[in-house]
Amino acid sequence: MRAAVLRGGRVETRVIDDPVPGPGQLLVRSLACGICASDLHFMDHPEAGADDDSGMATYDQDVDIVMGHEYCAEVVDYGPDCDRRVPLGTRVGSLPILRTAHGRRIIGQNPDAPGGFGEYLLLDEALARTVSSELPSEIVCIADAISVGWSAAARAQVTAREVPLVIGCGAIGLSVIAHLSALGVGPIVAVDFVASRRETARAMGADILVDPAEVAPFHAWRDVAGAAAQSMSALVAASGGPGCVVFECVGVPGVLNSIITGCQRGTRIYSVGGPPGGERLNTLTAKRKGLNIQFGGGPLPTHWDDAFEAVCSGRLDVTPMLGRTVGLDEVPAALDAARDAAGPARIVVIP
């Protein structure tokens, strides 16, 4: 098959062997696959996984790796011991996890589990979910990105006595905003340096847009929270006003620590980003303020399914997130373009 192959820190498009499905695996044709920031982190920072002994994500610079974990694909064959519950020709998506004889692997981040930047890949039959509509595959594949922020927003359980602040309006921040909006939470304050991303945040459900080059995020949040307190109960007002729930969706060193130093006492922080090289945090300040920090962890399976259904059914419109589509030969240049913060939330590969 043809694939955009990562090896030795470089991506080039060439012909490699087709993957062969093992027990319980499906062979699928990649129809569309989004380029994610984690693809860039994976290829740029092979040292980041050095302390991960799970074996799920492995970057061996001397072995071919086909990235791409946000895919929509078509079933073309079955491996041994499959139930064959999904007919051939059916479009599917799945959590990007593949069970192998050597353990679980992250699809697109392991030599044993090639991803959607190639013509074919393998899926775990038990995790495959059928696309329930005729929506284009380049829309459906965005569901995996949606699931990450969707899960964070669901787990946060933001109450009517809290005002959420979303810092970073890339794909994950936008997915947080989309689910908070669907849950009826608000007002939602969205922060990003890039005007186009702030406007996409508005399209996905944000109420207040903040350019941190002009206004400090927590100054803006306090103004919004003060106005919101006017419509809240006397009990909220008596307790000092609304609480703050921050979703950190940037993944750049220094951002999470700036949240710790800038937020009010008792703030709840959901860190969905994460610099590959880690970050130094002022834990004494976090302790003094009584902060509660929840780190990522990826979407829960039930939240992935919910997000997939919302996108496939059209209940959640993700078209504002979609940028251009590219072919396999254009993947190396598209990966470089995805580094541009002013670019679209998703560039999608059509193999």
Name the descriptors.
351 residues; alpha/beta; Quinone Oxidoreductase, Chain A, domain 1; Rossmann fold; 2 domains; 7-stranded mixed sheet; 6-stranded parallel sheet
Provide a short characterization of the protein structure.
This protein is α/β, with parallel strands linked by helices and 351 residues long. It has 11 helices and 18 strands.
Give an account of the 3D structure:
It is a single chain. The radius of gyration is 21 Å and the shape is globular. 29% of the residues lie in helices and 25% in strands. Strands 3, 5, 6, 9, 10, 17 and 18 form a 7-stranded mixed sheet that branches. A 6-stranded parallel sheet has the order 13-12-11-14-15-16, sandwiched between helices. It has a 3-stranded antiparallel sheet with strand order 2-1-4, with no helix packed on it. The chain has 351 residues and is an alpha/beta fold. The N and C termini lie close together (10 Å). It has helices at 37-44, 137-140, 143-156, 171-182, 195-204, 217-229, 234-238, 255-262, 283-289, 301-313, 331-337, and strands spanning 2-7, 10-15, 25-34, 65-66, 70-78, 91-93, 97-100, 103-106, 120-124, 129-130, 162-167, 189-191, 208-210, 243-248, 268-271, 292-295, 322-326, 346-349. The protein has 2 domains: 2-142 and 318-349, Quinone Oxidoreductase, Chain A, domain 1; 145-295, NAD(P)-binding Rossmann-like Domain (Rossmann fold), CATH 3.40.50.720. α3 crosses α4 and α3 crosses α10. β11 (162-167), α4 (171-182) and β12 form a beta-alpha-beta unit.
